[in-house]
Specification:
The protein is mainly alpha-helical. It is built from 13 helices and 4 strands. The chain is globular, with a radius of gyration of 21 Å.
């Protein structure tokens, strides 16, 4: 077997490396090694997955189990990825040092936050849930309403929205450039830029965050072992659930298309809002008005970890979410709304047992084998805040989180 293919197999099956937090004396040093799932090639980290051995779907339908990956982002340096990891967890990026990116995207909660509606600046309860960041390297649009087309564009939304991290570019750069530790680390991560002379710039901040987020790859679940040929990776109930998932009756796979388990399209489902919440127009407010009430089809990867479900946390469990689809198209559309319900949504009339089997299958998509380690020290000297973000807060009329 060729060494590269052997390495790809080892990485895909869970080989990992340790990421040091600091050098001697507590001084933070950036890692020179790529995170698990990536191979260092001429100074850049390149993705390695068994799915790269299979042909791409190329808009050819649902495809089989051995379907390749769409285009993806990689090629960042190990130092840029590691710097992004520190920035991701550092509350220095928010106004008043009260939040970090990890506040809404917690590693132990599937890189979501376990809330139906996230909590923003000063404890404000927002109107949408925080989507998982697993496998964002493969996505072509971001936010629930799909309005951003790059990771660099996406990170700016939460950073500067007054209801979220509430920062602004001038203040953020001033805080970063006032940190001797960050000046040193940015200089290491971006050697082609004169950080000492020019200071840290916005482009470097956005690149580092995008680099870290693109390293969050989850493609090593029990389902993946089954797809790669290990038939005993799934139980009989889980295989039955997979068959229902792919069937023309349930049609789940037509929108949640393997291997990412999303077709990356916007779909209008007629999902009800939690009681007391106004109707969210979704993608219809930022683009095509016929997509009113439409939201991006989320990936089902690690879906077991990210309850509650839908854009505003309407359903508490996977079974409730699956049951919504079997109750008939448009059954929950609010009175007075004329929505263009996605044509894949119809009336499969699945039984209670079939719904249970679907849930069994979706849980096989859980994989955290490449979950990054949270920093023990932060360059700013601030303490991490993401484990204490579940604060109270009243919903402010009109507030809208950037997810």
């Amino acid at each position: 077997m060729k060494p590269l293919r052997l390495m790809a197999m080892l990485l895909a099956l869970g080989a990992s490396v340790a990421w040091p937090a600091a050098g001697a004396g507590g001084r933070i040093q950036l890692n020179n090694d790529c995170p698990p799932g990536f191979e260092l090639n001429t100074g850049h980290c390149e993705l390695r997955s068994l799915y790269q051995m299979y042909p791409s779907l190329q808009d050819a339908g649902v495809g089989g189990l051995k379907t390749g990956l769409p285009e993806y982002r990689d090629g960042f340096s190990p130092q840029q990825i590691d710097l992004g990891r520190y920035l991701f967890f550092d509350p220095l990026l928010s106004a008043g040092g009260s939040q970090s990116c990890a506040s809404c995207h917690q590693p132990d909660k599937g890189f979501a936050d376990g809330l139906g509606r996230s909590i923003g600046h000063n404890g404000q309860q927002l109107t949408r849930s925080a989507p998982s960041l697993w496998n964002v390297a493969f996505l072509k649009s971001f936010f629930w309403d799909a309005r951003a087309s790059t990771l660099e564009e996406q990170v700016q939304g939460p950073l500067y929205h007054p209801a979220e991290m509430a920062n602004d570019p001038v203040r953020m750069l001033a805080d970063l450039n006032a940190s001797a530790a960050y000046l040193e680390l940015f200089g290491v991560a971006f050697p082609a830029v004169d950080i000492a002379g020019e200071g840290i710039g916005l482009d470097q901040v956005y690149t580092a965050l995008a680099a870290f987020e693109s390293s969050l790859v989850s493609l090593n679940s029990r389902y993946d072992q089954y797809a790669h040929g290990y038939a005993d990776a799934l139980s009989e109930n889980e295989k039955e659930g997979l068959n229902i998932f792919r069937s023309f009756v349930a049609r789940c796979a037509e929108c949640h298309t393997p291997p990412l388990f999303t077709n990356q399209q916007v779909a209008v489902l007629g999902t009800p809002e939690p009681e007391g919440m106004p109707f969210d127009p979704g993608a219809g407010a930022v683009g095509d008005p016929t997509q009113r009430g439409g939201f991006k089809v989320p990936s089902l990867r690690n879906i077991e970890l990210t309850a509650p479900y839908m854009h505003s946390g309407r359903f508490a469990s996977l079974k409730e979410a699956a049951e919504f689809y079997t109750l008939g198209r448009g059954h929950a559309v609010p009175e007075g709304e004329d929505l263009k319900i996605h044509w894949h949504i119809w009336e499969p009339n699945l039984s209670d047992t079939e719904l249970d089997r679907l849930v069994d299958f979706m849980k096989t998509l859980t994989d955290e084998s490449f979950k990054p380690r949270e920093p023990e020290l932060l360059p700013s000297g601030l303490a991490p805040v993401h484990r204490s973000n579940a604060r109270g807060g009243e919903l402010t009329s009109g507030e809208h989180n950037n997810e």
